[in-house]
Structure formats: structure tokens, C-alpha cells
């Protein structure tokens, strides 16, 4: 071949190579554009197409693999994520440390914990600030702790699940409200760019009785002997039951008012279920609806239920267009809201926060701290009826993906750390959105364990009872003792108070990893205690604990501490009983039932003091006659505590039309406030007056200010220092029921807003 022809072919080859490289770069640019627009499903196809073309540029290949792995992570496709990160780590020795973390997480999600442990170890070696490398390396040396008590569970995939994602159930009335991306209209008009699935809406299934596991009683009484503890992957006997093919009744959209064209859910309700807080995409139009990086963040909204319809949809004041706020959960007393956010200043991706909610006013959000939050993601909180919290996390040591964790809270702190709830509620995949009762015997949770990817399902679970019998006897005769009080102390904290039967017996369902103490008191006997632990696995067939009481002249002082504002049991109250004769003292801290019991000698005067931070100290005296030996079981005495921030409505405070002087009937009610302030000389209060919305704003504000001032003047005239009193009129600005300007309300609804209150500003 002559030289001109060789030159011509060489030029043609170079031209074709340039075209090929240009086409490859074009595919990568197209993939990157979809990646930057969060269109991860489309980006995956383009990156895979680019890599199949066998690009020669190593830098571009590395970029494509790195972004492809991230897309698979966001799509929850752990198998493909494992493949991509495995290829990256095998071919590029100088990778960023987080890629080793992502590979470790993908391996764990696929059940490859030994391989995952190695990657966590390498991640930990590459950087020391993130504790996940060290934690998971140690945790995966022994996986058995995740399987303790697993044989007690029965799991059922619910018949309400659809072909799309269904997750985050929440109790409502007799049913559950949940989040779903199903489209029951048959035609999907709008899809979420991220994974091309329909937008999320709220749905309602009206009767949870139709969702119970067939033929399974969660309270199974053992016969003969039982083995406490045990468990492990090989010994697991948990059962998963297939769902019925059709539900007995159909789920329905929860609310046309709350469901919009964007994402809604998860949700939480106040105790009376007339107030909702829910998650929604920022619905503002135009640029105001997006952050500076072009993303619609999640926000929290509230609404009020009137006449079975949701009204007054309102943004919560701590929302932002620059970060997400979502996944709400009310505390049992409705005074705290827990939620999730990636706001600046956190510990990781998303953290748990808590905010005070008093009388319709929101406080300032507070991060729950490093005991709860990690360098990873904490989300989907739920607070049970005892005030303890469940949440999902990929930062605490778990089986894989998101696991569900539990923490007992004392003064807002996880004082015993965070516990993994274990298999089978947790799996290698994402498990989250749990709701349950106080003993975790029955409930619901979400998981993508079966279908994977983004197809979450809702599951129900039941847990069998591992019963421990507590038997109380007379030490001398051996006879069983009836009506003895047995206080259950769990991990050092007062819990239930039980009473023995005529056979001297009571019982409880044991939890794993728990230290128990049983304190027994009875009239005419010296108290006694016994301890029991499930912290270690044991093959001893012990199901009974026997406690013997010696006769004495002791009598019992018992009672319940409550919060005055709502008469609910007060937990965490230090109750001290002082013998005013010999000056001796005994102290207990109340549990969820607010109860206390003391065995004391008769015929001596005693003082009981109840103390808790931000509450006024309450004292009650007992004279000799009240503590004389009783032949009958005494009814509990109640101690009520007044707390800072509590608001009390004054009953029967009426004013003549357009007047503000104090009438005689109102004076009698204000005299009660005078008595309270004399009992608590350190207490300071605010007098608050409100009107309805049926006159002008300025007129109503002035009228309410005059009425509040008149109440203050009356109380001051009865000998209370004016320095302890503040008066404010709120006009029509703070309705209790949404009856604002332009809202059609009944006379009784308007009357609810014409009220006078006092708020406790300080107790000492």
C-alpha cells in the first residue's frame, strides 16, 4: 500500500475514534444531567449505556461508576450498588473513604456481613472521625444479639398493600392512616422524577381488627417450664405469614383537603385526634418553592378537624425552603413534637429533633443529641404511650439498611442508650415506620424486605409473652398473700404496679436485655424485694420468682402524682416521705403510672414531698390518725403538680356585654387563684383574656386587655403582690377551634373563644 493511502486511512481512523470518543462523552454528559436533576432511574440507564461502550478515559469511567453507585443507593437497589462499588474498589486504590462505607452498607443489605465487616474496617482506617467504621466492625463479629427473642414474633404482610410503595402507618380512630404511591384511578398523571413512581398520598384503612394475624394470641402462657433468652440466626423460629389475597374492606383516600398533587405523609395526631401534623413537599409556586439548589424540600403542616373535615392547613413556623423538615410524632401528652430534619448543625444526614408545643404555640427545635443521632440518617420517629421513642437509623449498629431502634427517654435523654429491636422486625433491608403498644406486643411497621427497590410494604407483628410468675408468701406460715402491691422496677425505673391474686400471684411478660426488681409491700408486713435479669441467655427452666414477707406493724402510704393541667400521671417525679418524728426519709421516682408506695411505721406524723424540674414542689402532711394501722386497703392519695407553661381556663368568668368590671360570680372563681398563689408564694402567673371574632380586631384587643387588667387588679386587691402578676389581652388572635374572621361557627363555638385563662410563668 502506498504512503498516501496509508495516511488517508490513518486520518479516517483518527476521525472515527474522535467521533466515538465524542459520542461517549455525550452519553456521560446526558447521564450527568439526569443525575443533577435527581432523575436517578433515567441516569442509571444512561450510565450503564456509557459503561457498556467501554470508555477508554479512566477518569470518565471512575466518574460514571461513582455516580452510578450513588444512583443505585438512592433507588435502594443494593445488589447493583454492591456490584458497582465492588468494581470501583477493585480498580481504583485512591477512592474517597465514603465509597468504602457505601460498599459496606450494600454488602450488609445483601446479607454479606463478613464481607461488610471488612469494608467497615477499611472505612474506619481511612478516617477516624466517623464512628460507624469502628462500631459496625465490632458489631458484625457477633450477630447473635440481633436475634435474641426472635422466636416470639409472628410477622404478616398486610392485604392493604398495593403494587406501589405503602409505608409509615399511624393509628387513627379504629384504623390506620398510611402513606402510599398507589394510583387507584388507573391512569398515572404525575410521577416522581427520582424513581418514576406516583407521588405519595395519605390513605385510611378503618378497622385494624381485620388486620390481625389469624390464629395467633400474642399473650401465650407457658406451661411447665420455659427457656429465657436464647436465639440466633440458626435458631430463629419466627414466622412470616402470607397476606390474604384481598382485604375485607378497601382502603380509601384519607382527605381531599390534605392530599395534593405533591407528596404527603407521614403524619401524627394529638391524643384527641382532632389536630394533625403531616409532611408535605413545599407547595409554594415558582422560585419560592425551591431551595437555592433547585429542590423542593419537605415541610411540616398542621390542620384542625371540625365536623369530620380538616381545616386551617398551616405551615409550622420552623420550616425552611433550604432544608427538609418531616416525619412528625407527638408525645403522649401532646406537649412535644419529634421530627426529622437535615437542617445545619446536625450530626449526620438527617437527625431527630424535638420542639415544645404548648397551647397552640411552637417553641424552638432542639437536636436530640449524639446518643440518638449519628453520622448517618435517623428518621421516622414514633413515641409510645409511655413516652419512649422508636426510630429508624442506618448509623447505629444494625442488620442492614435502615433498622428500627428503641430508646427510653428520661428528661429528653436516652439515658440507657439505644437498642436495636432485633430480628424479625429488622432485616437486611430497610425497616422503618414502626408503631406499637407500650409492651411492643402488637403493632405495625414498614419494610422493603420482600420486593426490594422502592416497593415498601406494611407489616403487622405480634409478640408472644414470655411469662414470669411472681409469688408472694407469708414467711412464717407459707400461706399465699392476697392484695400485696408488687412494683415492677425495670432497669432502675418504676414501671407497673401489680396486685397479687387470692393465690398470692401476679405475672408479667419479660423483655429481653432487661434488669428487673420487684418491690413488694403489704399492710402489716415488712417490705421485701427480688431481682431478675434477662441480660444473659439462660437455659434454666425458671418461670417463677417467690418473695416472702415477714409480719411487722408497718402500714402503707400509697398514691399517684398527676399534672394538674390535664390530670395525667406524672413520670419522673421524685417523691420523698419524711418521718417528722425521727427525721428519716425514703425516696422513690415515679414511673409511667405516677404511682408511689411506702411501708411506714404507724402512729408517727409524715410529710410527702413531690419534686420535678419546672414544676412547683407539692407537700402533703399525714398525721398520726391517718397513718393508724388499717384493716382495709387504702385508696391512693393524689398529688397534683403545677408546671411552668401550664394554662388553665377559669370557669364561669363572664362579663356584661362590652363591659370589663368583675362581677360577683367571676370574683368567686378568681378567689381560687388567690388561694393557689398563697399556697405557692414563688409562683408567677399571666392573666390572659380572649374574645370571639365577631367585632373589629382593634375593639376586641382593647376589650380583652381591659378585662385581663381587671382580673389582675382584683387578685392584687386580695393581697397578692403585683410583681407576681402580668395581664395581657389577646383579642380574637388565639381561637381554640378555628373560628376566625369569615368562618361560620355556632354560638357554642364562639363561646369557647370568649375565655379568661391564667398561665404559670414561673414556679420558683
TrEMBL record:
Entry's Gene Ontology molecular function annotations: carboxypeptidase activity
Record keywords, A-Z: Carboxypeptidase, Cell outer membrane, Hydrolase, Membrane, Protease, Signal
SUPFAM superfamilies for this protein: Cna protein B-type domain, DPP6 N-terminal domain-like, OmpA-like, TPR-like
InterPro entries: 6-blade_b-propeller_TolB-like, Bact_OuterMem_StrucFunc, OMP_bac, OmpA-like, OmpA-like_sf, TPR-like_helical_dom_sf, TPR_rpt, WD40
Span of the signal peptide: 1-23
An annotated GO cellular component: cell outer membrane
Protein localization: Cell outer membrane
Segments forming domain OmpA-like: 642-764
Pfam families recorded: CarboxypepD_reg, OmpA, PD40, TPR_6
Principal subcellular localisation of the protein: membrane
Name under which the protein is recorded: Carboxypeptidase regulatory-like domain-containing protein
Taxonomic source organism: Fibrella aquatilis
Upper taxonomic lineage: Bacteria, Pseudomonadati, Bacteroidota, Cytophagia, Cytophagales
Amino acid at each position: 500500500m502506498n504512503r498516501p493511502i496509508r495516511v488517508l486511512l490513518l486520518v479516517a481512523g483518527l476521525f472515527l475514534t474522535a467521533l466515538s470518543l465524542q459520542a461517549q462523552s455525550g452519553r456521560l454528559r446526558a447521564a450527568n444531567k439526569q443525575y443533577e436533576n435527581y432523575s436517578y432511574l433515567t441516569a442509571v440507564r444512561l450510565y450503564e449505556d456509557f459503561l457498556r461502550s467501554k470508555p477508554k478515559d479512566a477518569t470518565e469511567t471512575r466518574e460514571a461508576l461513582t455516580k452510578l453507585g450513588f444512583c443505585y443507593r438512592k433507588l435502594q437497589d443494593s445488589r447493583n450498588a454492591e456490584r458497582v462499588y465492588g468494581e470501583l474498589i477493585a480498580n481504583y486504590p485512591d477512592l474517597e473513604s465514603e465509597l468504602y462505607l457505601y460498599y459496606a452498607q450494600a454488602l450488609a443489605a445483601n446479607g454479606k456481613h463478613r464481607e461488610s465487616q471488612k469494608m467497615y474496617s477499611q472505612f474506619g482506617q481511612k478516617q477516624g472521625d466517623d464512628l460507624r467504621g469502628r462500631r459496625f466492625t465490632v458489631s458484625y463479629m457477633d450477630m447473635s444479639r440481633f436475634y435474641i427473642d426472635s422466636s416470639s414474633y409472628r410477622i404478616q404482610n398486610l392485604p392493604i398493600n398495593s403494587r406501589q410503595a405503602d409505608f409509615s402507618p399511624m393509628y387513627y380512630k379504629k384504623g390506620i392512616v398510611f402513606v402510599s404511591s398507589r394510583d387507584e384511578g388507573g391512569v398515572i398523571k404525575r410521577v416522581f422524577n427520582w424513581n418514576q413512581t406516583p407521588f405519595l398520598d395519605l390513605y385510611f384503612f378503618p378497622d385494624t381488627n381485620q388486620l390481625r394475624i389469624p390464629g395467633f394470641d400474642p399473650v401465650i402462657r407457658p406451661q411447665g417450664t420455659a427457656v429465657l433468652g436464647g436465639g440466633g440466626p440458626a435458631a430463629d423460629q419466627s414466622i412470616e405469614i402470607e397476606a390474604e389475597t384481598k382485604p375485607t374492606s378497601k382502603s380509601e383516600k384519607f382527605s381531599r383537603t390534605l392530599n395534593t398533587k405533591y407528596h404527603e405523609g407521614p403524619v401524627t395526631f394529638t391524643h384527641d385526634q382532632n389536630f394533625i401534623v403531616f409532611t408535605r413537599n413545599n407547595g409554594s409556586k415558582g422560585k419560592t418553592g425551591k431551595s437555592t439548589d433547585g429542590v423542593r424540600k419537605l415541610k411540616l403542616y398542621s390542620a384542625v378537624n371540625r365536623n369530620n373535615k380538616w381545616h386551617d392547613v398551616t405551615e409550622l413556623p420552623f420550616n425552611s425552603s433550604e432544608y427538609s423538615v418531616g416525619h412528625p410524632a407527638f408525645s403522649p401528652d401532646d406537649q412535644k413534637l419529634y421530627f426529622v430534619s437535615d437542617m445545619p448543625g446536625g450530626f449526620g444526614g438527617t437527625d431527630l429533633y424535638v420542639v415544645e408545643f404548648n397551647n397552640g404555640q411552637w417553641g424552638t427545635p432542639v437536636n436530640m443529641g449524639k446518643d440518638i443521632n449519628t453520622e448517618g440518617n435517623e428518621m421516622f420517629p414514633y413515641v409510645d404511650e409511655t413516652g419512649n421513642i422508636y426510630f429508624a437509623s442506618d448509623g447505629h449498629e444494625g442488620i442492614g439498611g435502615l433498622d428500627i431502634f428503641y430508646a427510653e427517654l428520661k428528661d429528653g435523654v436516652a439515658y440507657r442508650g439505644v437498642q436495636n429491636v432485633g430480628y424479625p422486625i429488622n432485616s437486611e433491608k430497610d425497616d422503618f415506620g414502626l408503631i406499637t403498644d407500650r409492651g411492643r406486643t402488637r403493632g405495625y411497621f414498614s419494610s422493603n424486605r420482600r420486593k426490594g427497590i422502592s416497593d415498601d410494604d406494611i407489616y403487622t407483628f405480634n409478640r408472644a409473652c414470655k411469662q414470669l410468675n411472681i409469688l408472694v408468701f407469708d414467711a412464717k406460715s407459707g400461706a399465699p398473700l392476697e392484695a400485696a402491691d408488687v412494683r415492677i422496677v425495670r432497669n432502675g425505673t418504676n414501671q407497673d404496679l401489680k396486685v397479687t391474686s387470692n393465690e398470692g400471684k401476679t405475672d408479667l411478660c419479660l423483655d429481653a436485655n432487661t434488669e428487673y426488681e420487684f418491690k413488694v409491700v403489704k399492710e402489716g408486713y415488712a417490705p421485701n424485694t427480688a431481682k431478675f435479669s434477662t441480660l444473659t441467655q439462660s437455659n434454666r427452666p425458671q418461670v417463677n420468682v417467690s418473695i416472702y414477707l415477714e409480719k411487722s406493724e408497718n402500714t402503707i402510704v400509697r398514691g399517684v402524682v398527676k399534672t394538674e393541667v390535664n390530670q395525667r400521671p406524672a413520670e419522673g417525679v421524685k417523691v420523698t416521705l419524711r418521718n417528722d418524728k425521727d427525721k428519716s426519709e425514703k425516696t422513690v421516682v415515679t414511673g409511667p403510672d405516677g404511682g408511689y408506695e411506702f411501708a411506714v411505721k404507724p402512729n408517727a406524723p409524715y410529710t410527702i414531698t413531690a419534686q420535678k424540674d419546672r414544676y412547683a414542689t407539692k407537700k402533703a402532711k399525714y398525721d398520726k390518725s391517718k397513718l393508724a394501722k388499717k384493716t382495709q386497703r387504702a385508696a391512693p392519695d393524689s398529688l397534683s403538680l403545677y408546671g411552668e407553661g401550664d394554662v388553665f381556663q377559669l370557669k364561669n368568668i363572664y362579663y356584661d356585654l362590652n363591659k370589663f368590671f368583675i362581677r360577683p360570680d367571676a370574683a368567686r372563681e378568681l378567689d381560687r387563684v388567690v388561694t393557689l398563689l398563697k399556697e405557692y408564694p414563688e409562683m408567677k402567673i399571666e392573666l390572659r383574656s380572649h374574645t370571639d371574632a365577631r367585632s373589629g380586631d382593634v375593639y376586641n384587643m382593647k376589650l380583652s386587655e381591659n378585662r385581663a387588667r381587671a382580673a389582675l387588679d382584683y387578685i392584687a386587691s386580695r393581697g397578692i403582690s403585683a410583681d407576681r402578676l402580668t395581664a395581657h389581652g389577646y383579642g380574637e388572635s388565639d381561637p381554640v377551634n378555628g373560628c376566625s374572621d369569615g368562618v361560620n361557627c355556632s354560638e357554642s363555638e364562639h363561646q369557647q373563644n370568649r375565655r379568661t385563662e391564667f398561665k404559670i410563668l414561673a414556679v420558683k
